[in-house]
From TrEMBL:
Xref: SUPFAM superfamilies: Acyl-CoA N-acyltransferases (Nat)
Protein name: GNAT superfamily N-acetyltransferase
CDD domains on file: NAT_SF
Entry superkingdom: Bacteria
Gene3D superfamilies the UniProt entry points to: 3.40.630.30
Species, as recorded: Allocatelliglobosispora scoriae
Chain ranges of the N-acetyltransferase domain: 2-152
GO molecular function: acyltransferase activity, transferring groups other than amino-acyl groups
Keyword hit for Metal-binding: no
Keyword Transferase: yes
Database matches in InterPro entries: Acyl_CoA_acyltransferase (IPR016181), Bact_Acetyltransf (IPR050832), GNAT_dom (IPR000182)
Keywords, in A-Z order: Acyltransferase, Transferase
Upper taxonomic lineage: Bacteria, Bacillati, Actinomycetota, Actinomycetes, Micromonosporales
């Protein structure tokens, strides 16, 4: 018999084991997930549900409002089911509970992200989801990186630790406005960004890099690191519009990955929207290779 209950920080280790099984090309840490769950702002109305059978975690759902978007009522949903326990209604029950919760807190449209396998895509379609933007997951071994491009006159680099949060936010929050996707993240509150991004245990401020032009921050790249496994996740690279076309993002990411390699990171992962040609070109130049495909999934509530 499968039982469903409210989950919390004490479930992080088992949840992460399940997530890593289903999405091995993503990078998350126990400390990072626990920090996120413990510090979610009240207006996001986060609800976590665990599905258990004979003491084993066989499914999990996360549902809450997306308060980083100006589109009112947008929500985020995440449903995981262990591959050995699919086809038994566990995912359907988790999704139903998530939808009921989201409707109750004002959700009108939800977004999730899925794998590309036929079984998952059929299940989502049968539950009313429509596939949106396509994602490319890529990985790179850091033992054979190309040299960092020469820095033009007036261009310098600095770590996030040297720049500080306000300078990084000023670039990251604005550059994100142009990131492709089905739902825009165009209302990024500084305090929430500080809590979720800057204060997140996974963000390595000594390896994440900013590029400055005449002393002004113009581009940034974020690197999250799981030290025990030697894996890193590029959590975002962006350049302010007025500085684009100068190769600053390539410099930022190149410097970042070289620093990561020198500090014990062995493999780096990332994801990009398939229409984000400039970023895909940079990653291919660096040596990233596709490892999986994902999809944004959308459903009206």
């Amino acid at each position: 018999m499968t039982t469903f209950r409210t989950a919390g920080p004490d479930d992080v280790e088992r949840y992460l084991a399940l997530r890593n099984l289903v999405f091995p090309h993503q990078v998350n840490t126990i400390e990072g997930v626990r920090h996120f769950w413990r510090n979610v702002p009240a207006d996001e109305h986060l609800r976590l549900v665990a599905a258990e059978r004979d003491g084993q975690l066989v499914g999990f759902s996360r549902a809450g409002l997306n308060t980083w978007s100006s589109e009112e009522g947008t929500a985020i949903v995440f449903v995981l089911v262990h591959p050995d326990h699919r086809g038994q209604g566990i995912g359907t029950q988790l999704l139903a509970q998530a939808e009921e919760h989201l409707r109750g807190v004002g959700g009108t449209r939800m977004q999730g992200w899925s794998a590309d396998d036929a079984e998952t895509m059929r299940w989502l379609a049968s539950h009313g989801f429509t596939a949106g933007h396509e994602l490319r997951y890529s990985a790179i071994g850091l033992d054979a990186l190309p040299p960092v491009p020469s820095l033009p006159a007036g261009v310098t680099t600095a770590t996030f630790a040297e720049l500080g949060p306000a300078a990084v936010y000023a670039v990251d929050s604005v550059a994100t406005l142009d990131e492709p996707g089905d739902i825009p993240n165009d209302r990024i509150d500084y305090d929430k960004w500080l809590l979720h991004v800057w204060d997140g245990p996974e963000l390595d401020k000594e390896l994440s890099v900013g590029v400055l032009v005449d002393g002004v921050p113009a581009a940034v790249t974020l690197l999250e690191v799981d030290r025990p496994t030697g894996r890193g996740w590029s959590g975002g690279t962006g350049t302010l519009r007025e500085y684009r076309g100068r190769g600053l993002a390539k410099i930022a990411k190149g410097v970042c990955l070289h620093r990561a390699a020198a500090h014990g990171v062995v493999t780096a992962y990332t994801s990009n929207d398939e229409v984000n040609g400039p970023m895909l070109a940079i990653n291919e130049w660096l040596g990233y290779r596709p490892v999986a495909t994902g999809w944004s999934q959308l459903k009206a509530l």
